[in-house]
Amino acid sequence: MKNTSKNILPAYPELKRVSLNGGFFGEWSKMISTVSAKDILYKFNSEGALANYERVARGESKGHVGPPWYHGLICECIRGISDLLVHSYDKELDDELDRIIALMKKAQDADPENYINPYTTLERPNQRWGDNGGDILFQHETYNTGALAEAGVHHYIATGKTSVLEIAVKMCNYLADFVGDAPKHNVVGEHSISEESFIKLCHLFRENKELSDKLGARPEEYLRVARYFVDHKGDNETRYTSPKFLREYAQDHRPAREQREAIGHAVRATLFYTGMATLALEDQDEELANACKTIWKDVVETKLHINGSVGAHRHEEKFGIQYALPNDAYLETCAGVGLVFWGSELFKITPTASIWETVEATVYNLMPASVSEDGVRYTYENPLESRGNYDRWEWHGCPCCPPMLLKIAGFLPRMIFAENGNNIWLNLYIDSILKRDDATVTLKENKITVNTENGSTNLTFRIRIPEWSRNFKLTYNGEACDFESEDGYAVISKNFSDGDTVCMIYDTPIVKYMAHPYVRADVNRVAIKHGPLLYCAESIDNGKYEVWEDLDFDISEDAELVLEENGNITGKRVNGESFTLIPYRHWNNRGAHPMRIWFKQKGYTTDPMNTEGWDGKLYRPYAEY
Predict the structure, then answer these.
(1) In whole angstroms, what is the distance from residue 412 CA to residue 428 CA?
(2) In this structure, are residues 488 and 472 in contact, taking their beta carbons and an 8 Å threshold?
(3) Among 106-115, 275-284, 603-612, which is the least confidently predicted range?
(4) Rounded-to-integer distance, Cα 101 and Cα 167, Å
(5) Max alpha carbon distance in the chain (Å)?
(6) Can you give 546-598 as a three-state secondary structure string?
(7) What is the pTM for the complete model shown?
(8) Long-range contacts of 241-248, Cβ-Cβ distance < 8 Å, separation of 24 or more
(9) Cα distance between the two ends of the chain
(10) Closest CA to 197 of 41, 350, 303, 72
(11) Nearest Cα to 10, choosing from 494, 489, 410?
(12) Cis bond upstream, residue 67 (ω within 30)
């Protein structure tokens, strides 16, 4: 095999062209579509979130229910559910979205400037953008506007309706008139999302000029605002808002192109870095792209928990210093979803397989763990150990994670493949179907089947070689075939005829992983994975008394680990007793039992002074079975 990097940049297929095809994620997505989506909207309504729009429409003052970002969360639900409706249409959900959108329109129509932010209108009408003693960090005005823009784009693409888009255009036009160089005002995103969503709004209207003219859209202004939000981080001397300096908490400590590490509130951070990557690609801005890559490297090599989560500290929900990875870490669901969005945007700049090793850990472990198997209970925190004090909640005073869950579930099909002409990247090994003009590509149980539309077609597949695979091989129509290696992908080019197949053949051992010697929380311990799946022990399966102490056992050095038919892993402790591990994504579905991921390993001693072989690695194999 030889390296033949082509520097071909990929794009994701439209959602309507790619769908899940059974398997774990097919069933999981179905649950999110049919159960969780309705549950989440019902609970927002029950808590009074939608009544805020009615109060604004009636011209009331005071009486806002919930946090200031409720409006943004509703908009995120609209985005996620719109995407889910593409492949799982549900008239009840569609009608409920129409009802919510009608309430939004009434609230916007009540304002002569088309401003819509229910909290600020009801509670701080004279403090827009943090003026007159307001607090932009708390009011979340740019976040709410960005979420509205995002909802407008996704709802239109999914349904063909312009109802959300019309609201978004009016509000985004108002924002564009207000934000910018003098005589406009120095405002930056206090909670990022607008940077990416305004660029998407620009793209939609650039590609649909008639629609743009009809709605009075100003696509280049949306792009200008996105640039302003990125370019003016750290520029707080002339800031209009209060507070002027949003500090590390909101990635406002220095200009974006000078930032080199992931810092501050982890959700705001991952969404800001997503916007950086989107803008870097839009403007072919190498300096901005390099800053984004450097920050990604900082996360992957020093700040990423093994369950695909980020944001170690409960205080300010923030990143910690390098290698500070406590097992009782905060690890907010939203931050993990933000990491996936960031990685998916970064891939379009630097299409390397290593990005998907990180994204895959989050998709396979954190995403399913963040919602119960009955689809109606959710997590805010996703720790790597529990003394029985963590449990999913039916609802929360800050229910930001369920809408992000809807968004990532709706986006999941698009990430599996990427394209550029006849080039097709396979990024995630998730059963799915990609429909193209020249062929339908079906992925099922590690087999790609090509069904051509007109006899035959030339295609080049770039198939990710998973880090967790061993002895990776390809077959073409059942026969072994050579492939070239490119940035972690196996590259195979053929003139495909109808029914041709490519199979990925590899071994998937059970692997014990050790953490970098600088990770003090995991000294002398190992974690266990099978393929992309991380495993954990719950006390209900291990020990007589279901207490935390039952899980702090030493794993035998000699006994093998065994993958059972039910997907669990069993092994032996040093004292000869057995232990049972379950996939982390299933934990906390049988009650709030103690849980652990990192275990003491007989014969393994961490040497904090020896970092040989650890360059670029945060976790590496200790033993395989």
Answers:
(1) 10
(2) no
(3) 603-612
(4) 9
(5) 75
(6) CCHHHHCCEECCCCCCEECCCCCEEEEECCCCEEEEEEHHHCCCCCCCEEECC
(7) 0.97
(8) 241/129, 241/130, 241/131, 241/134, 241/136, 241/186, 241/187, 241/188, 241/190, 242/130, 242/131, 242/133, 242/134, 242/135, 242/136, 243/130, 243/135, 243/136, 243/137, 246/136, 246/137, 246/188, 246/190, 248/318
(9) 27
(10) 72
(11) 489
(12) no
pLDDT at 454 over 90: no
| SS3 state at 345 | helix
How far, in Å, CA of 177 to CA of 187, rounded? Answer: 12
Task: Read off the tokens for 574.
Answer: 């040093």
Report which residue type is found at 460.
T
Decide: 44 and 66 in contact? Cβ < 8 Å: no
- Tens-digit pLDDT profile for residues 13-29: 999 999 999 999 999 99
Task: Give the position of tokens 């953008």.
Answer: 129
Q: Which two tokens stand for residue 620?
A: 């590496």
User: How far is the C-alpha of 586 from the C-alpha of 543, rounded, in Å?
Assistant: 19
Q: Report which residue type is found at 195.
A: E
DSSP assignment of 215-283: HT--HHHHHHHHHHHHHTTT--TTB-SSSS--TGGGT-SS-GGG--S--SBHHHHHHHHHHHHHHHHHH
| CA–CA separation, 369 and 363 (whole Å) | 10
> Would you state the pLDDT for residue 261?
98
Strands (E) across 60-165 are located at: none
Residue 558: what residue type? D
Nearest by Cα to 510 from 344, 389, 428, 622: 622
